[in-house]
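From the pipeline queue, job 12 of 40. The input is one protein chain; the requested action is below.

Action: predict structure.
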Amino acid sequence: MAKSVDQIIVEIKAETKKLTQGLDNVNKKLDKTKKTSDRTTNALKKIGAVVATLGLGKLITSSVATIRTFEDLEATLRAVTGGAEQAALSFEVIREFTKGTTFQIDQVAESFIRLKQAGVVPTSEVLQDFGNLSAGMGKSITQLAQAAFNATTGEMEMLKQFGIKAKLEGNTIVATFDGVTKTIDRSGDSIIEYLRSLGRENFPTAIEERLNTLSGAISNL
């Protein structure tokens, strides 16, 4: 039997009511979602603020430590070089050398000081040879400078870290590296020159090769 117009209108109203109720439910859910989203956003902002604060604290701590380190190095440079002007010139040599390596400036400065204490003028050429030997052996330049300084006092143990076996024989040192043995004078100049020759002859491009790696690029940055 065909529906009357009144029946159709009633059914439409009923469906419309259902639709309206459904939309109301959707709106309530959306409103709830928005509130949840707002709370989450606010929470993330608070977390971000905390992280930023912690990061700033670490940055300040790191900066203070760096400043103290450089002040100590500057004071030592003045002492070993004889004055503020000489220290400034020495630091310029250190800075220029460090720019083209993966070594950190405090490491190079400490190496400079050790070499100076060993009675050697640490020119950029000396640092280059030492840097190549250090990079070639996977060690820090500070370790090599300390090993060189120790050798001038008769202590040869640290040289083993660089594959060098050395022993004292009177006023000479018998040193062996990569199967090649040489006898050198027991003096700061002779020891430094021997180590420089190892860098020049065996690892002439070690600094450059390390700098061209990803780790080197990040370190230099």
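Job complete. The helical segments are 5-81, 84-99, 105-117, 124-136, 141-152, 188-202, 206-211, 214-220.
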